[in-house]
Amino acid sequence: MYHTLVILCVVSSLLIGSQESASVEVNKLLKDICDHVQNIQNRTQGLLDTYLSNQGAPFNGSHFSAEQLQLDGLPKASIPYRAWRRMTDEERLLENYQAYSVFQEYFQLVLDDQRDLSPDQTALLHLLDELCHDVAQLLKQLSSAFDALRLPRPLPIKDPLSSLDQQSSPFQRRLRGYLVFREYRLWLLRTHRSFTLLGSQSREAQ
Q1: Whole-prediction pTM value?
Q2: Is the CB of residue 107 less than 8 Å from the CB of residue 131?
Q3: Which among 42, 88, 184, 188 is most buried, taking Cβ atoms within 10 Å?
Q4: How far apart are alpha carbons 85 and 63 in whole angstroms?
Q5: Mind listing the pLDDT tens digit for each residue in 164-177?
């Protein structure tokens, strides 16, 4: 009887220790995602300014604006607060993962466009290449978050560029790049907010 109680106590201690370790791992991952997103945010405005300055008129003008234009196929970051606040962890993760999966495809397109339109702008091309790496790294972190929270990984998205007009003019391609950047910045804000909330909820649940 005594030996049985000792074994039960040891097993219980191991389980508690394992759960605490898993919680610490989850909290660290959520913080890492927040930090990574914050770092991307800090660089994105400068990258957008560099992008616009290399596109010629009217993009490099001080009064350039295209606030009323939207790019079909891009996920929209805007969401009513109540709907955002009531999302489950799985819904929150899924929407972020799907959004950045789409942005990954679009930024590769923007990079390819700029290689064609601005082949001599090596600094811009380097920054765009780094941006593609940032998005790929963020997607890896989001995939790890599904595992850490014991949620099923999402299915691969359908090709978001399948209906794209391959005969777009240089102006349309430059404008498309700007619209991708603009929505991407809004998604970074939403993602940072979402993972700050997830981290807070995870710590409170311990």
Answers
A1: 0.86
A2: yes
A3: 184
A4: 35
A5: 877 899 999 999 99
